Amino acid sequence: MLLKDEIKRIASDITDDILVKRRYLHQNPELSFKEFNTSAFIKRTLDEWGIPWIPVADTGVIATLQDNYKTGKTIALRADMDALPIQEETKLAFKSVRQGVMHACGHDLHVASLLGVAYILKRLEKKIKGTVKLIFQPAEEILPGGAIKILQEGVLLNPQVDIILGQHAMPSIESGKIGIRKGMFMASMDEIRMEVKGKGGHGAEPHNNNDPVVAASTIIVTLQQIVSRYNNPRTPTVLSFGKINANGSTNIIPDTVFLEGTFRTMDEEWREKAHKKIKKIANSIARGLGCECNIYIKKGYPCLFNCEALTDKVHSHMKEYMGKTNIIETDIWMASEDFAYYAQNFSSCFYLLGTGYPKMTNPALHTSGLEINEECLETSMGLMSYLAMMNMDDSLTVCLD
């Protein structure tokens, strides 16, 4: 029997069990670095299957499967575990039981899928020619993220990872299909917080005030020129402000206005220059309007680059497993991912798992109505198992370009 057919058979056999696990995880979401129950559930499952594991990054887990002689490459496979502070508004029978917490980014699917991979590879243990590390990672949704903590703890160095693969649920892609892109794929992301201080007072007497609302508004509008005039048009860049808190009233001008937003781009050199521009422009506007501006830019995840040589090979293996028509060459994605830290250290490929229902407008990630087409589970765990097995004996040179 061909390897892909054997994997497909095992994936089919275990799909119902993994589906139950996914629904349990969806019903019991936990926020970043608080994934205690999720971690315990993963550990119990691995113990039942006789797969060794170690704790990592507080609530994370790394399981390992390898041949007796530790030949071949070391392949890492990653799934993130944390949920989001969102109140679920679906009508699912297994909707979240945690008030204000929801798996709105598919991480429950990621964990369940990687557990399925663990089971499949355990069944194929005698055919493993190398080492597979299964990374159940906490805290992808908050800075600085769980990936950097895992790297700092050194658990991916002995044996050192040669290749790391990851996937992400994508409701805009139909279930049964995969999206992949080589080279630059996802954006960096930095959090911006500003405090614009002025002199508040009565709304009928603006001449006696230094209005921080006007200053903050002018800052927001003017900073859009960071993208439209200072940025090279060939470099994808987004500057968005999503939170403004003036806390005044119809006739009260406040003393202080707070702003929060994000800056995203796909060029690390421009990223640094843009930070300086943002600070310079905001400070100048505030001073010119009689206010002051305190700016804090929290540097977040870097750009995510898929190793071109590895991604070409992964793409080829995907076509072998799923058929050419089910693989989509996707566009850049301006979201950010702490998987990018792994990509800075190891040859990597991060791809998109179709989770959408056909001929439907599927709710987007990070929304209260997100629903996953669970038919993707069998594809998800089978494909990742096949990619791990096929890359273990590969003589590919590690790519960190």
Describe the structure.
The protein is α/β, with parallel strands linked by helices. It folds into 2 domains: 3-186 and 302-392, Aminopeptidase; 190-299, Alpha-Beta Plaits. 35% of the residues lie in helices and 25% in strands. It is built from 10 helices and 16 strands. An 8-stranded mixed sheet has the order 1-2-4-3-5-16-6-15, with helices on both faces. A 4-stranded antiparallel sheet has the order 10-12-8-13. A hairpin with a 3-residue loop joins strand 1 and strand 2 (60-66). It starts with a helix and ends in a 9-residue tail after the last helix.
What distinguishing features does this structure have?
401 residues; alpha/beta; Aminopeptidase; Alpha-Beta Plaits; eight-stranded mixed sheet; four-stranded antiparallel sheet; 16 strands
The strand count comes to 16
Question: Shape, please?
Answer: elongated
User: Structural class of the helices, strands and pairings?
Assistant: alpha/beta
Beta content: 15-25%
- Alpha carbon gap, first and last residue: 38 Å
Overall mean pLDDT score?
95
- CATH architectural category of the largest domain: 3-Layer(aba) Sandwich
CATH class of the largest domain: Alpha Beta
Q: Which sequence of strands runs across the widest sheet? A: 1-2-4-3-5-16-6-15
Which helices and strands occur, and which strands form pairs?
Blueprint: H1 3-27, H2 36-48, E1 53-56, E2 60-66, E3 74-80, H3 107-123, E4 131-137, H4 146-152, E5 163-174, E6 178-180, E7 183-186, E8 190-197, E9 201-202, H5 212-223, H6 225-230, E10 237-245, E11 252-253, E12 256-265, H7 268-288, E13 292-299, E14 304-306, H8 308-322, E15 327-329, H9 339-345, E16 347-356, H10 376-392
Parallel strand pairs: 3-4, 3-5, 5-16, 6-15
Antiparallel strand pairs: 1-2, 2-4, 6-16, 7-14, 8-12, 8-13, 9-11, 10-12
